[in-house]
Design a protein that fits this description.
Layout (H helix, E strand, L loop, with lengths): L2 H4 L6 H9 L27 H23 L1 H8 L3 H21 L1 H30 L4 H29 L5 H9 L1 H41 L17 H34 L4 H29 L3 H21 L2 H15 L3 H11 L5 H29 L1 H32 L8
Helix pairs in contact: 3-6, 3-7, 3-9, 5-7, 5-15, 6-7, 6-9, 7-8, 8-11, 8-14, 9-11, 10-11, 10-12, 10-13, 10-15, 10-16, 11-13, 11-14, 12-13, 12-14, 12-16, 15-16
Length: 438
């Protein structure tokens, strides 16, 4: 397997692209599940909500451990004497471990285990992580190790969920439903934000984690029932021209910068709210509201993309610029203006990624593996290094400088998106491919 393909966490999306590129596939059908290296169907898969539901649930569940910790950041800083830099390392461990595991074979594990066992594995690991929070986290380094395991678990959940969606969703609705799937992370942030007051005020964050372990086991048992044991996906690989590869590297860099800013916002928003005089409960509420706005942004972007059909990268760039303005407001204001800035930054600065994936899909139907691999590598890298850079800047230059830093990253991302779009268009023309879907 090539390096580009091995870096790809969303391997199942290749099946989507392959079917969209094929004129022979009926428009109203999903992607057939096939064993690795074969094209024959392996097992029936539930259509509609019966297939989408488990995909969403497994993605949300795998995201909750990290965002539970982020929702109680002030308590963690008190218990472990954390600096913002150390908190950034913990968040970086989640994303970097997820990217590493995705590259090393999360898709192969999902194909080997099948849908039911892969889903069960995600829920078992997630429950074990919550138990670790409760009984093992005696230092911030141990906490970082547990969070790294959570990152690898989420990578497995992403691959499994994409296999589910590619089998369950009609092709002409996939942009919206992949937006739904991309909304799993803000849903996890929303759940964690709502749990913060309970965790601190009633039972403490450790006992809340133990309770969540029990909930995850129950939900996992229900969600995995009825799923087929065996399901894989054939890979689509084709060589890319040098021009298109350069364009995709620019786009992946843009995604890395935007991801760095968006993940940093989620990681440090509660801390910023408390520093601005809000209570922890109020900070958790702001985090929850921002999650709702991020969900709305991803769903709305996908819905409009299904109907607009072109210039997707331009809209992603505009969303990044708008998100950068929101981040700048968060760093320079207090009170109601602070809250408004957070909501704008969440809706636009965290709502871009579903549309970005969709744009990559529609401009590279003939050779999807490498483009998706580059894009996902950029997103993982940004998600891992962004919080660490935020913590570094905050520890040395202050909170305002750190929020200005990630606003600048978001603005630069928008510029690189337009530059990459232009390079990709010229490359597609040179390769005698149409770029109408950009």
């Amino acid at each position: 397997m090539s390096l580009a393909v091995s870096l790809m966490p969303d391997t199942a999306s290749e099946c989507v692209l392959r079917q969209e590129a094929s004129r022979a596939a009926p428009r109203g059908e999903g992607c057939a599940m096939a064993s690795p290296g074969r094209g024959s169907p392996v097992a029936p898969y539930p259509r509609g909500l019966g297939g989408v539901g488990p995909a969403i649930v497994v993605t949300v569940a795998s995201s909750v451990p990290l965002f539970l910790l982020l929702a109680v950041t002030p308590e963690l800083r008190r218990d472990f004497d954390l600096t913002l830099g150390q908190l950034g390392v913990i968040v970086a461990a989640f994303h970097l471990a997820g990217g590493a595991y995705a590259g090393l074979g999360a898709a192969a594990v999902a194909a080997r285990l099948g849908m039911r066992r892969s889903t069960a594995l995600v829920f078992v690991l997630t429950a074990a992580i919550f138990v670790g929070f409760w009984g093992l986290a005696s230092s911030w380094l141990i906490l970082a190790v547990l969070v790294a395991v959570a990152g690898a678990t989420q990578a497995q959940a992403n691959v499994t969920a994409n296999l589910m969606l590619s089998a369950a969703v009609r092709i002409d609705r996939q942009a919206f439903f992949f937006g739904v799937k991309q909304s799993a992370t803000p849903v996890a942030t929303l759940i964690a934000g709502l749990f913060a007051p309970v965790a601190v005020g009633l039972v403490g964050w450790r006992w809340t984690a133990l309770g969540l372990a029990v909930v995850v086991v129950v939900i996992g048992f229900v969600a995995s029932r009825g799923l087929p044991h065996r399901a894989g996906v054939s890979r689509v690989r084709a060589p890319l021209s040098g021009g298109r590869t350069r364009a995709l590297v620019v786009l992946a860099t843009a995604a890395a910068l935007a991801s760095a800013a968006g993940v940093s916002m989620s990681s440090f928003l509660v801390e910023a709210a408390v520093r601005n005089g809000m209570t922890l409960a109020a900070g958790g509420l702001v985090l929850s509201l921002s999650s709702l706005f991020a969900i709305f942004g991803r769903l709305a972007a996908g819905w409009f993309a299904d109907r607009r059909g072109r210039r997707h990268f331009v809209w992603v760039a505009l969303m990044c610029w708008g998100g950068g303005v929101g981040l700048l407001v968060v760093g320079l204001s207090t009170g109601a203006v602070f809250v408004c800035g957070a909501l704008v930054a969440a809706c636009l600065g965290q709502g871009w990624n579903g549309l970005f994936h969709f744009a990559i899909v529609h401009t590279n139907r003939d050779a999807p593996a490498t483009p998706i691999g580059l894009a996902q590598a950029g997103i993982y890298l940004g998600g891992g290094l962004g919080p660490a850079s935020f913590g570094f800047v905050a520890d040395r230059y202050g909170d305002h400088a750190a929020w200005t830093w990630i606003a600048a990253l978001m603005a630069l991302s928008g510029g690189l998106l337009l530059a990459g779009r232009g390079l990709l268009g010229r490359s597609l023309r040179d390769d005698s491919l149409t770029g109408d879907q950009r």
